[in-house]
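To close the chapter, one final illustration. This time we ask the reader to focus less on the individual chains and more on the assembly as a whole: which components sit near each other, and how the overall shape emerges from the parts.
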Amino acid sequence: MSRLPEYLRALHALADSGHETVSSEGLANAAGVNSAKLRKDLSHLGSYGTRGVGYDVALLIDQISSVLGLTQCRAVALVGVGNLGHALAGYDGFANRGFRIAALVDADRSRVGEEINGLVVRHVDELPDIVAEESISIGVIATPAPAAQAVADQLVAVGVTSILNFAPCVLSVPDGVDVRKVDLAIELQILSFHEHRKASLTALPATGGSALTALPGGLAATETQEAIGT
Amino acid sequence: MSRLPEYLRALHALADSGHETVSSEGLANAAGVNSAKLRKDLSHLGSYGTRGVGYDVALLIDQISSVLGLTQCRAVALVGVGNLGHALAGYDGFANRGFRIAALVDADRSRVGEEINGLVVRHVDELPDIVAEESISIGVIATPAPAAQAVADQLVAVGVTSILNFAPCVLSVPDGVDVRKVDLAIELQILSFHEHRKASLTALPATGGSALTALPGGLAATETQEAIGT
DNA sequence: CGCGATTTGTGCACCCCTTCACAAACACCT
DNA sequence: AGGTGTTTGTGAAGGGGTGCACAAATCGCG
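The assembled structure is written out below.
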């Protein structure tokens, strides 16, 4: 599930700091989750710790990496080298964690040929060749919203079955294709909501605020500091 | 809840294309959710549509904007102008949706003074002044992981109660401070997991794959194309 | 003015996730 | 070798979200 990458990151941090084993509670703290939840998650993987001792860090890293399919480096194609695409192309957090940006693509021919971080931008029409050459397994869309659906269709057409979408729009794709969406503005809006709520509550601590801000408790009780979605 | 921003985005798109009213099903499709869920969400807001007609687009935009606290433009401070921070500073998706990047901050004095998108980078030690001047309500952390906790502490110290964290680490903050985390590598790893699963299943359609890949169904059935977390 | 079509709002059942709490298992120490 | 303390793995309870299905309400048309 979606917490495994977080566990993996925490495990790498623990390994770097010299830990050989971790208790479920130690790892849970590092990953920011409940220890019972972590144990249940790990038990679903079939990976066994040792009672009285904990989990072997190196073994668990191998197990989780294997489940996530990170044993080999995955090649991703990045479509759209605008503001955001530029940053993603240079983001070193990908290479450190088993991903290689293998191709930069844009629909704007005036951008084709530009070199970013050692990669030359190619035209989106070359996608069939690119995917074949580099054995791309994931496509990242960092285009403006109006172009995103067309790009997604092209990616699907050339056999990409996993898409990370930064464009603020809903993509429709065939069954069997996974889409994950990251909308930076939405994240801020959610924070704005909490901020607005806190402001209303402190202003009217007795009444609980106006009808608009005094939502049923469940609405505001949302998971936070979790990796996007699940 | 976390779906409201998505509804709001869909509503703006509908308004731009000239729609006066929307049915719950139309809006649900545009936002990529179930229509019953959407109606229930909207009913929790206390906003009323008209039976037999649908929802008034403009009215609903006002309602949701009000609930999210987007009636006034919110000022955000961006800490860390490295690769990612640079892109975020130039990202136009923020300004279009009620946010204004009011300050760029970095701990590296060699970056202080640099101008990005019309804003001058200032030193992180000036945060108290900056927050006071610009009435910052949200802080965005785009620093490397080792620096993130210290930055978060500084933000909290100067009164920021909402933080969007792009650094791959868990932040510990006092109660009352909201942290949302966006880890781009984790998104890719989740896609990698699905990709790995799909590959295993197609390779061994009869047996269902090895023990490692044949996880209990629930593990793979994760929400997708949802805005990060909730 | 009345009727049918359409759409909202919601009660209900279901299912998954979360969390607590405890028994089983292991290592260490004496 | 046995006792003791620690930690895992899991059964059970609780809560919350999700989706179905239907009653209530509104509009448009004859």
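Chain B touches chain A through 89 residues (CB under 8 Å). The beta strands of chain B are 21-22, 55-56, 74-79, 99-106, 115-116, 119-123, 138-141, 162-165, 178-181. With these observations in hand, you are ready for the problems at the end of the chapter.
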